[in-house]
Amino acid sequence: MSMELIKPGIHLDFVGKMKYAIIFSVILTIIAIGSVIFHRGLNLGIDFAGGSVIQVKFQKEVSADQIRTALKSTKLENSTIQQFGVNEFLIRTHESFNDQKILAANLEQPLTSAFNKDYEIRRVEVVGSKVGADFQRKAVFAVILSWIAMLIYITWRFEFRYAVGGIIALVHDVLILIGTVSILNMEFTISILAAIFFIIGFSINDTIVVLDRVRENVKLNPKQKLGDIINMSVNQTLSRTILTSLTVFLTVLALYIFGGAVIHDLAFSLLVGVVFGTYSSVFISCPIVLLFENMQISKMKRKK
After folding, report:
1. Rg of the Cα trace of the chain?
2. What is this structure's pTM?
3. Which domain-ending residue is among 126, 157, 179?
4. Which of 6, 171, 195, 294 stands the most exposed, by the fewest C-beta atoms within 10 Å?
5. From CA 238, how far away is CA 8, in angstroms rounded?
6. The CATH number of the domain where 67 resides is what?
7. Enclosing domain of residue 120
């Protein structure tokens, strides 16, 4: 017996609300792009910009301000210090500490002077600026390539208009997520990139379910208006969409609440992505399909 949140036979007018949804999405996209321009790009983590991450565990209670004071007048003076867990801190800097002597002079000696030997350096990760820039280019290329591959596959498997609707929905989701990261001035790390790829997969899966039902109903009701078919199709898949998205959302919410500071940004990005991935499946992809239909009808009228 399948679980259904929405009773069969429901008739919500999604097509009637699509105009407002498009306006809402355009405003959000402009704000997202505007935020990135205003901040002069994203706040890139060391994976993309280069630098060092140093994880330090203290044996007694210490504050980030105390660590910052201890590191004053060193190369780590302007570093970002983030607490995660009990008496454990991540020190992030754009300086590359490849040399153990430089690390000792800028970290170990100042910390030992301030806290004696009551600490342990658990890990040091260093990424060169050239490696970071190369990784940045490859990440952008990978995202764009995934869109192109999906566009080709969906065009082959379904129709071009469905493919365009699905890909524009994906671009919308990625832009909104990047805009959210920019507005909150979150560090754009490899975790955020992982969230983007997850959302691309989640969103296109949800979109294909809706568009496949639209295609089936078009074949079954060839004389019916496409707007009515889209409404019927979205209503038919609504229970499945809500159940799937809600399950993923609650799982990620648990990660966000109980997962700790290390995966906090990843979980938050996934939450944003799941919400907008579900929204775009109905309110972005479907209007694009409808737009293609209206363009074809107007072309036919002009030929007559």
Report:
1. 25
2. 0.79
3. 126
4. 294
5. 10
6. 3.30.70
7. 51-126
